[in-house]
Amino acid sequence: MAVTPAVAADGQVSLSRAATACTYAPHWLPVPDGFNDVRAYDSRNGVTVGSGMGGDGREHALRWENGVVDVLDVPSGWGSASQVNKHGVILGYDDLGPVVWKNGEPIRLELPEGAQQSVVAGLSDSGIVAATATIEERRHGLLWSIENPEQAIDLGHGAGDLDLSGVSPAGLMVGEARETAEGAVRRAVSGTPTTGFAPLAGLDPEFASSADQAAGRYIVGHGTPAGAWQDSPVLWKNGVASVLAELDSARDVNSRGEVVGSMVEDGTATSCQRSPKTGSGALYVMVCGAAR
Questions:
Q1: Tens digit of pLDDT for each residue in 71-113?
Q2: d(CA 123, CA 43)
Q3: Residue 286 to residue 15: CA distance in whole angstroms
Q4: Which of these, 216, 166, 207, lies nearest to 187 by C-alpha position?
Q5: How far is CA 194 from the centre of its chain?
Q6: Gap between the Cα atoms of 50 and 69, Å rounded
Q7: CB 50 within 8 A of CB 38
Q8: How far is CA 30 from CA 68, 141, 164, 198, in A?
Q9: Which single residue of 107, 109, 155, 227 has CA 20 to 30 Å from 81?
Q10: Cα–Cα nearest to 249, from 259, 258, 239
């Protein structure tokens, strides 16, 4: 079977061989023997993390540094690494729930009793992990400190649901929430356990929206701007929303306001990077994340 090598581009983490000139030159990452479908999801301070399918047919968490790839140990049979902070702590999951790797050792993040369908959201530079899980048929935001992995803090769900999807390096959490249990529109929100969560400005509250990732002054997501009729990718800077009209979707943002996402040209979807200074620039690779 042909192996798809993982790629790291300076400014974002990517997958697949470039078909044409890129905004950033790709750096090819080594693939472990016997692995295929290898993907890199995040990169920080020279450390890149991701996953790949091993010869045993299982997904494995991977870590790259200085041209060397390591297969990370997982508490159970399979897993993936999705994010790394500036201290080299890695966030991911296995078939039982959230996992962090500190100094290469896996640490299980214990879920509250009855929690199901957990999804990791992000990891801050101070070691705060956020996730979402279903508890008694509602989506709850969850929080851990990597220094106390056995104690999950339940952020609750308000009157409806709280789905967290990202955490900035400084600890700002973003996602979507609905204010009542049934029938309410899901709205893009941001906040912290101290400040609480509030809807992001600039969008029509009658239409669904979501905030997906955050870094520095920036948040990226999607929604329908006030007075518009179409759902669009949105970039918030200091709380002010701007439509990313040249993109069809936005996936991630870094602290410089550079957004990675996708656009459709002549019926073909391509990945791309948008700089706040230069506008859009095509990246003909599958972009998975932006280095913070």
A1: 999 888 899 999 999 999 999 999 889 999 999 999 999 999 9
A2: 13
A3: 5
A4: 207
A5: 22
A6: 10
A7: yes
A8: 7, 36, 32, 43
A9: 155
A10: 259
Residue 101: which of 92, 87, 85, 90 has the closest Cα?
90
| Torsion angles phi and psi, residue 6, rounded to 5 | -75, 150
Q: DSSP class of residue 209?
A: -
| Adjacent-strand bridge partners of 279 | 275
Q: How far is CA 283 from CA 60, 73, 122, 176, in A?
A: 27, 33, 25, 28
Please give the single-letter amino acid code of residue 204: D
Q: What type of residue sits at position 195?
A: T
Residue at token pair 């992990």: 129
Query: Hey, what are 90's tokens?
Result: 């890695």
Could you tell me if 5 and 17 are in contact, meaning their C-beta atoms sit under 8 angstroms apart?
yes
User: Looking at this protein, which amino acid is placed at residue 185?
Assistant: V
Q: Which amino acid is at 285?
A: V
